[in-house]
Amino acid sequence: MEFVTECEQETEALGERLAGRLEPGAVVAFTGDLGAGKTAFTRGLARGLGISGRVTSPTFTVVNEYEGGRLPLFHFDMYRLGSSDELFGIGWEDYLARGGVCAVEWSENVSDALEEGTIFVEIRRGASERQRIVTVRGVEL
What is the DSSP letter of 12? Predict the structure, then answer.
């Protein structure tokens, strides 16, 4: 399914909409250029899960954990990882076993670790500076 958002708030709203469809253990794998809106979409996921804290990019920490909602949210940034071996080294399987939602930015860097059932979200820049084309595969919205 393809969606067009005209501003950051609409991208967040789409993430919020997806959150309502997520079950424990869900993996949402993002692709998109730097600044495309992956973290904005994840902010919407958090809001949709009932998480009220500030959601920021985990670029330097690799993973941020958010609790207090319907499900915990584990927000990963794989930009600096060279392979899925490094992902397993930071406890990927432990995060999956905790029954939360794993939101994975730069998922193409660890694509061989993503299992069947992963929801894929591609975010591309649109015709204007704020417009985004969001493609969601693996779930109906």
Answer: H
Residues 75-99 pLDDT 10s: 998 887 777 788 788 888 899 999 9
Helix (H) or strand (E) holding 9: helix 8-19
3-state secondary structure 30-99: EECCCCCCHHHHHHHHHHHCCCCCCCCCCCCCCEEEECCCCCCEEEEECCCCCCHHHHHHCCHHHHHHCC
Class of domain 2-137: alpha beta
Per domain, the residue ranges of the chain are: 2-137
Q: Which amino acid is located at 89 in the chain?
A: G
Contacts (Cβ under 8 Å, ≥6 apart) of 13 = 5, 44
pLDDT at 123: 97
Q: Is the pLDDT of residue 103 over 90?
A: yes
